[in-house]
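Quick log. Single chain, no ligands specified.
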Amino acid sequence: MTPNAGEQAVIALHRVTASLAGSEERPGQDDMTRAIADALAQRRHIIAQAGTGIGKSLAYLVPAILSSKKTVVATATKALQDQLNRQDLPQLAKHLGIDFSWAVVKGRNNYVCLQRLDELQKTNDQFDFDELSERSKREVKDVIAWAKKTKTGDMEELPNAVLDRTRLAVTVQSDECPGASKCPIGERCFAERARDNAAASAVTVVNLHLYGLHIAGGGGLLPVHDIVIFDEVHQLEAIMSDTVGAQLNPSTFAALAAVIRRILTSATTDDLLNASDKLSVALSPHVGKRLSSPLPDFVVTPLNQARLALNDLLNALRNITSDDLDTSQRRQRAQSQCNRLAEQIDVALGMVNNYVAYVEGSPERPSLRISPLSVGNVLDTAVWQDHLAILTSATVPMTLPSRVGLPLERTDEISVDSPFDYEKNALLYCSPEFPDRNSREFEEFVHDELEALITAAGGRTLALFTSNKALNAATAALRLRVPFPILTSAENTRSQMIKIFLEDEASCIFASQSFFQGVDLPGRTLSLVVLDKLPFPRPDDPLLEARRDAVGRQDSFGLIDLPLAATSLAQAAGRLIRSTTDMGVVAVLDRRLATMNYRSKLLGVMPPMTRTRKREEVENFLRRITQ
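-> predicted structure:
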């Protein structure tokens, strides 16, 4: 690009936006586009905080495409992947005036496996098929028919959703697949085809989880690229922590044993299952706790036993001789799973100081997790040194650069405010008069406030809770107090709740922290967002405990807990106003937002809504906007 890269990018952006229905000037989008283009031209990283409604996807895509550099966009969700693929990138291809190609790559288990379908159709070997329920058998037949017509093999494109058991039957995990070169129909593989398309495309769209796996695998999963765009970057640290490391779940051992028993005699898996049982017993008392580094002997012993058992199983699998193609494919998939599990065990046994070991799950189903103490070192080596990075979100955590190891001397920052009129269209309700969250009367206070506010709003509420206990108590109480439908995950899937909520204005969603972000509910159907408490992370989270110790307990609140709470709070508040015509109230029933000395940092990351302490004002506002 020329020295006037920023202005050229804005001109190109306007060429695209002028073609869109209802297009209007967006100075913030121009500023973001200009800053990103200039940063790329100067070979600098850039952090771009872009308020809701800016149009950040076009703002980062236009400069990246104009740069002619190979680009990977890593999003937080598959839904955003689909938006880029079906909406933003086609618009750019049509109106930008530059010929470019793009591809979407998802994890292997998102694509139907043609080899698995071939095995399920064989009349002489119905073992897998006979294990399925009658409904799953019907769904498998539908998938087989669909696979003959689909161009992508993406399970999200199925006309009808299928059971999880059906999905497992027709797909393979990445650790199962032996690779295209060892598969008899590898040249037709949908997952491999998606990767081939990505290698030949200017832009590749993935999710953050897959990018984390790319890093964990040494960089061989995705095509070589010059630019990486992290969208919804507030999730980057958490997702990298989950994917760069290891997870050992005793149930994984049992699942592998089941696969192997279809090929070898059941006795061959006894040692693996015995090691799995011992590991489960060893981990069970330590759920929710950190383990020492190196790992304690009571964990190392069953892991070593499992590692030896895997060696024996791999030898037994290699010695299988069969002319049957399906048996050969099952053997190769079992070998791949054995090798992947062995690698995970080796990571755990060779754990270094920059990693933290802790136990997740429940006493009945414990899981050993090995996560990096800091993802900064990992990202510096894998990303920052050799790529140009664009990091963007509506809410960029206060301590993001230090948490992810960005080199500040090579990083620009820009913050662009939302074009929405928050002061006119939204109220923020909180009062120092609220009871303390730990007091006996707090639960009843929350229920009283919910009743009054939901009644004034005529339903139209997203109530968010920081614990399942509080969620369940409020659901039970409010179903007796208000005449509006209350939707929860206990009775509905996430997609079902959203669908019902958007179709029925009077309905309410009561949800946990999974609804704090990634939910788009525009229009009158959402007029009220309520948070029972400030969303501080759990004090006993073992990974965060280790990170608090690493920065020092005196500084940990400001460096760890407060930024996480602020980001989560801002994301939750961001559910309310999604368009220029949206109006409503965010009610935070935790008086700490009005009384504590850190409140300015929390308020500073939230949209600039008009504030009130009076419930009467809130009720009147809600009645007026929902009439």
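The longest strand covers residues 355-361.
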